[in-house]
């Protein structure tokens, strides 16, 4: 009897243990691992498909589409619970797409949302899609969708400014700066799938994608095309006819001096934005780092500006009484000024000349003399007034450019400011009188093309520093205006009208011959030939037109272009197109 009771007790204990184990396993499945198993169960039943929103388009002021979207095939892989089937799908997909299996595995690992298929390849051609469909039974979880692909219909037009995308997100230029407006809002659909991962019935839930907003720029497409083609042609001519082997690069800006609207903005060498990072450099480009770069030379390339700086020196001297409009200074072609040997181009001597004549003939002797009279602090004060140091407007150069729709500014915003040099000298630096002399005619000053555009615009409009801007308005996909941008004044200086007229008169004389003959109106301008140690000189031209009622301000920069006079051909092409002269 006792033995029977012992057996019953043991059976009861075993049954209790079995029940306890079952309860524990049930608790683990339902509570501890419940979320994971629910996810797997849902994953076997439902699939979430993301519908990518078309990015907003980008248009020129005259309606030419610079950035658009076209439909393209996208291949994705849904999560497969069975490891063997998952590996089979990866191997087959890698083979058909010409990819490494490890690359697909890495993409899958990065996706922590199992209910959402992982995009494996974008912009897949139709032939490959057809091949994938034929082998669909061997690729569990295969998803092929049609989604928008970014394209640039005008290819090289305004390429540097537009920027590019990585994985559908803007990472450069306008694409990056206006990402929040351009990207839109993705849609989705939830579909039911069977055990073989095949869709069953209609979507159980869905939300359509909302397209991004469109940017409308200030740029004129025709003017932009003329600026780019002229810049490219003139540089090629310098290499072929003048044998200037380094003349591959340069930049142009055309701006409205009465608003800051950028009408054209070109940098050379340019590129096709559709294939910017997917093709080798053309064989014709030399194997030189300074040339073989896509860096934007309008914003990110600071070089000495030569005689185009002389208007600042002249205006500063006139306004502060260091020279008068009628005073004449003797130009002997070469002279030692404050210990610095100064020579005109070709050592040409011009005798006794006033300021307008000094600008016309580009006398280094005249402006070196003014610089020695004024000293460097006064010159830097006027650099600040023209917004060329980043301290004049109370806003950094980076801030100004980014608000205008520019990105990737990597320049020291304090360079060439009065504060910079005061701090430098406080810490043991030195500034010699000879430096001031050289600076006064532009040989030590380095500025960007955009800074020079602001400067010449202020000469044209009388002292208003407008913020340069590229985006005029933003519209929704239905055309409704979301935001409109008006001109913004960063600073305004009441320059002496008489002093300004003297400087402008000199610019008119300097632009009265050569490429600017036979125009129906006068032009104001100034060439600049700047030196860089061990390299060919740089060629500059800055100016505005018409002289009496400025509508456009122009800056042309030919890196290693030799003489400043050679930049005037590009300026004339721009003037001819803008005013309908050809």
Overview of the molecule:
With 582 residues, the protein is an alpha+beta fold. The protein folds into 2 domains: 46-210, Penicillin-binding protein 2a (Domain 2); 221-274 and 302-578, Beta-lactamase (3-Layer(aba) Sandwich). Helices cover 36% and strands 23% of the residues. Strands 2, 3, 4, 5, 10, 20 and 21 form a 7-stranded mixed beta sheet that branches. A 5-stranded antiparallel beta sheet has the order 12-11-25-24-23, sandwiched between helices. Helix 11 packs parallel to helix 18 (497-510). The termini are far apart.
Number of domains: 2
DSSP helix fraction: 25-40%
Structural class of the secondary elements? alpha+beta
CATH topology of the largest domain: Beta-lactamase
> In the CATH hierarchy, what is the class of the largest domain?
Alpha Beta
Query: The biggest beta sheet, please?
Result: 7 strands, mixed
- Unreliable spans: 391-416
Summarize the helices and strands and which ones pair or pack:
Layout: H1 2-32, H2 34-45, E1 46-51, E2 58-59, E3 65-77, H3 83-97, H4 101-110, E4 118-124, H5 126-134, E5 142-151, H6 159-162, E6 165-166, E7 169-170, H7 173-177, H8 179-182, E8 187-193, E9 199-207, E10 214-217, H9 221-241, E11 250-255, E12 262-268, E13 303-304, H10 310-319, E14 329-331, E15 334-337, E16 340-343, E17 351-353, H11 355-361, H12 364-374, H13 376-385, H14 397-403, H15 418-426, H16 433-440, E18 446-447, H17 449-461, E19 464-466, E20 471-475, E21 481-484, E22 489-492, H18 497-510, E23 524-530, E24 538-545, E25 552-558, H19 568-578
Parallel strand pairs: 2-10
Antiparallel strand pairs: 1-8, 2-3, 3-4, 3-5, 6-7, 8-9, 10-20, 11-12, 11-25, 13-18, 14-17, 15-16, 19-22, 20-21, 23-24, 24-25
Helix pairs in contact: 9-19, 10-12, 10-18, 11-18, 12-16
């Amino acid at each position: 009897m006792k033995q029977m009771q012992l057996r019953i007790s043991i059976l009861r204990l075993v049954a209790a243990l079995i029940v306890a184990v079952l309860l524990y396993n049930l608790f683990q499945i339902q509570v501890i691992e419940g979320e994971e198993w629910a996810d797997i169960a849902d994953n076997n039943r439902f699939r979430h498909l993301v519908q990518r929103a078309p990015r907003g388009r980008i248009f020129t002021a005259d309606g030419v589409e610079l950035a658009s979207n076209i439909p393209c095939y996208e291949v994705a892989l849904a999560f497969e619970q069975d490891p063997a089937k998952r590996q089979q799908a990866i191997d087959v997909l890698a083979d058909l797409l010409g990819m490494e299996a490890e690359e697909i595995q890495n993409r899958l690992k990065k996706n922590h949302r199992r209910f959402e298929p992982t995009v494996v390849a974008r912009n897949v051609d139709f032939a490959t899609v057809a091949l994938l469909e034929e082998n669909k039974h061997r690729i569990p979880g295969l998803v092929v969708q049609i989604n928008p692909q970014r394209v640039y219909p005008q290819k090289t037009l305004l390429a540097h400014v537009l920027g590019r995308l990585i994985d559908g997100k803007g990472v450069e230029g306008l694409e990056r700066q206006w990402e929040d407006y351009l990207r839109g809002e993705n849609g989705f659909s939830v579909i039911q799938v069977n055990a073989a991962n095949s869709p069953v019935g209609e979507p159980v839930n869905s939300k359509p994608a909302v397209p991004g907003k469109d940017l409308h720029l200030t740029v004129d497409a025709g003017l932009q095309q003329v600026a780019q083609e002229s810049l490219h042609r003139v540089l090629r001519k310098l290499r072929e006819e003048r044998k200037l082997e380094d003349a591959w690069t340069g930049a142009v800006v055309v701006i409205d001096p009465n608003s800051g609207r950028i009408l054209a903005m070109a940098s050379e060498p340019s590129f096709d934005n559709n294939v910017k990072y997917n093709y080798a450099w053309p064989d014709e480009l030399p194997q030189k780092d300074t040339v073989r770069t896509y860096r934007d030379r309008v914003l990110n390339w600071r070089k000495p500006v030569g005689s185009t700086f002389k208007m600042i020196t002249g205006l500063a001297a006139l306004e502060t009484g260091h020279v008068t409009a009628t005073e004449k200074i003797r130009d002997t072609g070469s002279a030692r000024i404050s210990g610095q040997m100064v020579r005109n181009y070709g050592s040409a001597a011009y005798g006794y000349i006033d300021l307008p004549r000094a600008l016309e003939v580009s006398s280094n002797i005249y402006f070196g003399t003014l610089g020695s009279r004024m000293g460097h602090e006064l010159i830097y004060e006027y650099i600040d007034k023209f917004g060329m140091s980043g301290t004049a407007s109370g806003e950094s150069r980076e801030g100004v450019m980014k608000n205008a729709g520019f990105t990737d500014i990597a320049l020291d915003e304090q360079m060439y400011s009065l504060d910079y040099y005061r701090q430098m000298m406080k810490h043991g630096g030195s500034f010699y009188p000879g430096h001031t002399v050289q600076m006064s005619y532009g040989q030590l000053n380095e500025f960007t093309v955009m800074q020079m555009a602001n400067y010449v615009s202020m000469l044209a409009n009388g002292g208003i520093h407008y913020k340069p801007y590229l985006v005029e308005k933003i519209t929704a996909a239905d055309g409704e205006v979301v935001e409109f941008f008006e001109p913004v004044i960063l600073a305004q200086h009441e320059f002496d009208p008489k002093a300004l007229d003297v400087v402008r008169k000199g610019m008119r004389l300097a632009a009265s011959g050569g490429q600017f003959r036979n125009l129906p109106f006068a032009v104001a301008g100034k060439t600049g030939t700047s030196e860089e140690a061990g390299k060919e000189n740089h060629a500059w031209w800055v100016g505005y037109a018409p002289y009496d009622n400025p509508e456009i301000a122009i800056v042309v920069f030919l890196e290693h272009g030799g003489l400043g006079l050679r930049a005037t051909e590009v300026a004339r092409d721009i003037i001819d197109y803008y005013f309908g002269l050809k």
